[in-house]
Amino acid sequence: MTGKDIKSFSLEEAVQTVREMGGKDFQGKQLFEWLHQKQADSYERMTNLPKSMRSRLEEEYPLLTLQPADAQISALDGTRKYLFALPDGQMVESVWMRYRHGDSVCISSQAGCRMGCRFCASTIGGLVRNLSAQEMLEQVYAVGRAVGKPVSHVVVMGTGEPLDNYENLLKFIRILNHERGMHISQRNITVSTCGIVPRIYDLAREKLQITLALSLHGATDEKRQNLMPIAKKHTLFETLEACDFYFEQTGRRITYEYSLVQGENDGPEDAERLGKLLRGKNCHVNLIPVNPVKERGFRQSEQKVVDKFKNKLEKYGINVTIRREMGRDIDGACGQLRRRHMEMDADRPGTPSGGKITEREKKR
Ligand code: SAH
Which of 121, 174, 195, 327 could form a disulfide with 293 if both were Cys (CB 3.0 to 4.6 A apart)? Predict the structure, then answer.
């Protein structure tokens, strides 16, 4: 049997757990529904399960229900950023964004990250640990509770490298998509990776209908290596080959993410190379003006440079969007809210707001 994190259990494991307690299979299914569909915050509420079973579950499988430890709401676009404290004191952040096509939650997959991308705040303190499936699911559920409506789209683009936490990621996706859970369509789930090539092949073979987003950020091995250590392990060619395989297996178009960093990868020759690299592929490029992180010192490309870059790519017949900067008035870049709190923990006392233009939600 699995561990004690009952919200990470598959339906079959939930049924098995209840069976071992002398219960019937239908009660195992009810338990799964209480956890993931009705999202009960206590066993007490699971009123169709026998009282004795509820107390035993309570004793053996403590229920994880996250509450925001901090929250920021953007006055500009309503983006909300939540910080959650996990039982072992680790902090994770999740972001809720409003889009035309529906609301979306961006969740973290690890506490910290060991990928070392040079522009990213999440990786500064290294990897602390993987998040369990239930810790990923609870971010989605807790954000839904906090905003007062269920979430329709989920992106795994917060702190961490999801393919470095592969098994838990898959459990998470399967439960999120389960008809007895939130039943979020696989097509409404996006997983972003820096490019762990063997895991991209594994994921492709799962034949899920989720969207794979690949962080490219450079159009030559040299440029990519300069920003992302993973590029020293897998060449651009190998990485794109893996993405082509993902498309062949799933029919899902790849999203290539390209963060534009002034003077590093935003020149006309970079756009040309990227255009040639992706020409003819059924893909989509998302340009992200780099979000400056104080420890990193990178600068955003100017708007006209971004526009030129986009136009050049379009000349190669590539579908391009520029990522709208959501919540630019709150700690925008991945991992910045978490980092600020970790720093504060290290040198208390301090106030968390840092004079930002935000409306704060009270601590619950
Ligand atoms: N580990 C995953 C998820 C990371 S965050 C990955 O690498 O894809 C999602 C995207 O934001 C990635 O493309 C990442 O490279 C990018 N990103 C991280 N920090 C950024 C910053 N400060 N500015 C712009 N993009 C950033």
Answer: 121
